[in-house]
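tool_call: predict_structure(chain=1)
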Amino acid sequence: MAALAVTSEYRFGTIRTTFQAVPNRASVLIAKAGLIGAFGAVLTFVLAFGSYAVAKAMAGSEASTGLTLSTGDDWRAIYGIPIYAFLCVILAVGVGSIIRQSAGAIALLLLWPLLIESLFGLFGSFGEKITPFLPFANANHFLSPGGGSLDFHWGPWGSLIYFAAFVLVIFGASIVIVNRRDA
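tool_result:
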């Protein structure tokens, strides 16, 4: 949806009107990313706690004893989802403003974490050395409660910072590109 918020304006030509109303193009992209990101973060926060409550209620008394939020990893799995959603919205707005085409932006945003990064696992030891530096692998490392088989060189919070830095680089590039080309 965040990518569509930008690409739809390019498709129908309303981005020209937006940039005429607000000549500072960076503030337009920041406002779009901030508004959609805040809404997405609040929505995923509510859904994460709702999912936890439903899972605990449906699991029964014996199974629900293991469903507790007693450790930092447990809590990170809950509040990490809204953080991840917010960063993904910023990434989607950036990619959408760079590509300007809905199909291309959505395809890239879906195929990147689901296909492209998983293909590195097919390259044996080379893939194992590269995977800790892939952005969505770091996001998954932040969200996962336990350590994985990969050596990430940093902890979960370092993975979040790495993913956030990657998102900000893409978003910054999109601001530079939007400022340089016609609407």
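agent: The chain is about 80% helix and 0% strand. Proceeding to next step.
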